[in-house]
Design a protein that fits this description.
The protein is an alpha+beta fold and 389 residues long. The chain folds into three domains: 77 residues; 100 residues, no CATH class; 151 residues, no CATH class. 28% of the residues lie in helices and 30% in strands. It contains ten helices and 21 strands. Strands 11, 12, 13, 14, 18, 19, 20 and 21 form an eight-stranded mixed sheet that branches. A six-stranded mixed sheet has the order 7-5-6-8-9-10. A four-stranded antiparallel sheet has the order 1-2-3-4. Strand 5 and strand 6 form a beta hairpin. Helix 1 packs across helix 3. The chain is globular, with a radius of gyration of 24 Å. The chain starts with a strand and ends in a 5-residue tail after the last helix. It comes from Thalassotalea algicola. This is PqqD family peptide modification chaperone.
């Protein structure tokens, strides 16, 4: 499928058309929105003939749609794109500690401190709680270094029965119970480490390399991404992240090496592949979900993106009610894929422009794009042509 790009003259915007699907990039705000087929027709008609009442009446007659409906659609379009650059920015989710330069001479304050190296950034974690220090030592062991110059200093302070996380002197999270500390700490390590890289796009989802293929599993929470990522693991795989799909300026994946967060609903299912799950401590996210941490099977295997032959973008849709139907794969258009990617959560390193969007379109267009519905991971692996080990 080919994306047709139309630069509009009546609006400072670019229309991207793929069959019946369209996206509109409003350049003053760097805002990308989905537009209906009717809106697309109105925009193209106005481009050719100008915005005149008789043209809209002619359009109404041609489409046998009431003029009121067309006027309403056009008014909504103008209202959506009225004004200049908005107050929101794609960088609004940037963590504040990234703008604080840490004194590189900072050293471990105590024997409970740990140095970590993640995605090229150095972290120094200190706590006044011996139990938490041992948990950090256990869960983050593969990342712990004898010393690395810290870019970020995280202090986890236990005070009056609660835990408080400070990052480069900023109070990041407060009033946590012990069970809530590790998820908040690991999440912060993930987000800060990817935001410190020269990334272009970041989407919520898992990314794993299997031989010469890369599987991206984006989407909203609760769709089965992390569990499927854990199941895909074998001796020939490399996990970039089970939480974030991070693409740099060249649209190469960035590895954010951290343990997999396995939700309670998958513990029994994954215990055969990850026997250590049974012994691992339970932690609790702020929304109440219970998780345990395990490392990917091949955690020390280096990724080799230079030998990637194909990228597969798969949107998992787990559902127990699909048991009798087996797994099914549905092809997606480029526009469908972008809509699902953004719905699941994303961040850009700069405001969206035509060049950046062209890069993303090209990347997606050259990838396999599928929605995967399944009721068991064995079904999913079979549908994807992957070994069920």
């Amino acid at each position: 499928m080919t994306i047709n790009k139309v630069r509009l003259k009546k609006l400072p915007a670019i229309l991207f058309i793929e069959e019946d699907n369209s996206l509109l990039l409003f350049e003053p705000r760097g805002e990308l929105v989905t537009v209906s087929p009717l809106t697309t027709i109105i925009l193209l008609t106005c481009e050719k003939k100008g915005v005149l009442a008789d043209n809209l009446q002619h359009l109404s007659d041609q489409l046998t749609i009431p003029l009121e409906s067309i006027n309403e659609e056009y008014s909504k379009l103008l209202a959506t794109f009225s004004g200049g650059k908005g107050e929101d920015s794609y960088l609004d989710g940037r963590y504040p500690e990234l703008d604080i330069e840490l004194d590189k001479t900072v050293t471990a304050p105590s024997e409970l401190s740990h140095y970590l190296l993640i995605a090229g950034s150095g972290f120094l974690i200190d706590t006044n709680c011996k139990v938490l220090s041992r948990a950090i030592q256990h869960i983050l062991a593969p990342l712990i270094s004898s010393y690395c110059p810290p870019d970020f200093f995280l202090e986890v302070i236990h005070l009056d029965g609660f835990y408080h996380i400070h990052s480069n002197g900023i109070l990041a999270v407060k009033h946590l119970s012990y069970e809530e500390v590790m998820p908040e700490l690991v999440d912060r390590l993930q987000i800060v480490s990817y935001q410190a890289t020269p990334y272009l796009f970041c989407f919520h989802g898992a990314a794993i390399q299997q031989g010469q293929s890369i599987y991206l599993l984006p989407g909203e929470s609760g769709k089965g991404k992390s569990t499927l990522c854990a199941e895909i693991q074998n001796s020939n795989s490399t996990t970039f992240s089970d939480e974030f799909i991070v693409l740099d300026e060249e649209l190469n994946l960035t590895e954010i090496k951290l343990p997999l967060a396995i939700k309670s609903g998958s513990w029994e299912q994954l215990s055969g592949k990850y026997p250590c799950l049974k012994e691992e401590q339970e932690w609790r996210r702020l929304d109440g979900r219970l998780i345990k941490y395990v490392w990917p099977i091949n955690r020390d295997k280096e990724n080799n993106v230079t030998k990637v032959a194909k990228v597969h973008i798969i949107f998992p849709q787990f559902g127990v009610d699909l048991d009798d139907k087996g797994a099914s794969l549905t092809k997606l258009t480029v526009v469908d894929t972008i809509q699902l990617l953004t719905r699941g959560g994303y961040q850009l390193s700069a405001d969206l422009d035509e060049l950046t969007l062209d890069k993303l379109f090209s990347y997606i267009e050259n990838s396999t794009r599928m929605s995967l519905s399944y009721s068991s991971t064995s079904q999913a692996l079979k549908a994807l042509g992957l070994p069920d080990e």
